[in-house]
Amino acid sequence: MGDPLTIDLTGESASAANGELRLWIIGNTLRFKIDPPLPVGVERSYLIQGVGNSAYIKKGTIIGSEGSIDVDELPSGVYTFTTIVDGKPCSAKWAK
Predict the structure, then answer these.
(1) Distance separating alpha carbons of residues 89 and 52, to the nearest angstrom
(2) Could you tell me if 32 and 19 are in contact, meaning their C-beta atoms sit under 8 angstroms apart?
(3) What is the pTM of this model?
(4) What percent of the chain lies above the pLDDT cut of 70?
(5) How far apart are the first and last CA of the chain?
(6) How far does Cα 5 stand from its chain's mean position?
(7) Per the count of CB atoms within 10 A, which of 34, 53, 73, 84 is most buried?
(8) CB proximity list for 41: less than 8 A, separation 6 or greater
(9) How many CB atoms are located within 10 Å of the residue 52 CB?
(10) Other beta carbons less than 10 A from residue 14's beta carbon
(11) Are 57 and 48 in contact (CB under 8 A)?
(12) Residue 85 Cα distances to 4, 28, 37, 92, angstroms
């Protein structure tokens, strides 16, 4: 039998058109950075959804292109983070 499949979900990033979404987790905080940056004060919505269990959902709004989201209430697992980057939906997976 072969080696087990391992997927490294640390420091995940995804590209959308001319933009990029980068995620990393520190404790119970999901950090993000989105390029190209939006002007200060511009909001964008986000959706966090469990990959194996769509019952775990968190929605909200982020302001700016860099910041953090408290994910303390989410159980351990693999999630997707989706937001708009360069006018198009962009998602990245991450693990807690």
Answers:
(1) 21
(2) no
(3) 0.76
(4) 81
(5) 29
(6) 22
(7) 34
(8) 63, 64
(9) 9
(10) 17
(11) yes
(12) 34, 24, 9, 12
- pLDDT, greater one: 77 or 41: 77
Q: What is the 3-state secondary structure (H, E, C) of the chain?
A: CCCCCCCCCCCCEEEECCEEEEEEEECCEEEEEEECCCCCCCEEEEEEEECCCCCCEEEEEEECCEEEEECCCCCCCEEEEEEEECCEEEEEEEEC
Structural tokens at position 74: 């989410």
Tell me, what amino acid is at 59?
A: K
The first and second tokens of residue 28, run together, are: 């119970």
